[in-house]
Structure formats: C-alpha cells, structure tokens
C-alpha cells in the first residue's frame, strides 16, 4: 500500500493537524515508511511464540487492593478554601 499526497492531506485533516502544502510530500513519505515497517513485521513468523509482557520472566510486585482514605484527610482539606464535616464545600450549581 502506498500513501499519496492527497491521502496524507486527508489523514492530517481527520487528525485535525495543520500541515502546510509544502510539508505534505514529507508526511506522505513518513506514512509510507511506517507502512513499510509494518509490512516487515507482518513477514515475521511468530507461530508458537508466546506473547510476553516483559523481557524478564518475573511477576510484578502486587499490593493489597484495599480502600483507604489515604490517612491525610486533614492535610488535604487544609488547602481547601471552604471545608465542612470532612468534605470540600462548593457553591450550589443546580437548583
């Protein structure tokens, strides 16, 4: 697959990226280079190769998944312009 200048302009438009007319050939070439690299990756035989998350075979350290208040509620609320009963107080916006 080859990307021409018109396609590069359309992709830039869809991505909401402003690209000057004189920069479109370079953008099209960059897209073609990326597609060429993807084609090379598609040629690699990965049959029987297990997917991996890391290059080292180790499990990540896990922590206990528990809900806490962080232990700093008073410290956090000390920065609030208005705090009541342990919560941030904000102006009413819905009547």
From TrEMBL:
Keyword Membrane attributed: no
Pfam family, one: GatC
Residues annotated as signal peptide: none
Gene3D superfamilies with a match to the protein in the record: Glu-tRNAGln amidotransferase C subunit, N-terminal domain (1.10.20.60)
Catalytic activity: L-aspartyl-tRNA(Asn) + L-glutamine + ATP + H2O = L-asparaginyl-tRNA(Asn) + L-glutamate + ADP + phosphate + 2 H(+); L-glutamyl-tRNA(Gln) + L-glutamine + ATP + H2O = L-glutaminyl-tRNA(Gln) + L-glutamate + ADP + phosphate + H(+)
A GO molecular-function descriptor: asparaginyl-tRNA synthase (glutamine-hydrolyzing) activity
Entry coiled-coil feature ranges: none
The enzyme's E.C. designation: 6.3.5.-
InterPro entries, alphabetized: Asp/Glu-ADT_sf_sub_c, GatC
GO biological processes: glutaminyl-tRNAGln biosynthesis via transamidation; regulation of translational fidelity; translation
Top enzyme class: ligase
Keywords from the named record: ATP-binding, Ligase, Nucleotide-binding, Protein biosynthesis, Transferase
Assembly with partners or alone: Heterotrimer of A, B and C subunits.
Role of this protein: Allows the formation of correctly charged Asn-tRNA(Asn) or Gln-tRNA(Gln) through the transamidation of misacylated Asp-tRNA(Asn) or Glu-tRNA(Gln) in organisms which lack either or both of asparaginyl-tRNA or glutaminyl-tRNA synthetases. The reaction takes place in the presence of glutamine and ATP through an activated phospho-Asp-tRNA(Asn) or phospho-Glu-tRNA(Gln).
Family, similarity comment: Belongs to the GatC family.
Listed name of the protein: Aspartyl/glutamyl-tRNA(Asn/Gln) amidotransferase subunit C
Organism: Mameliella alba
Protein's gene: gatC
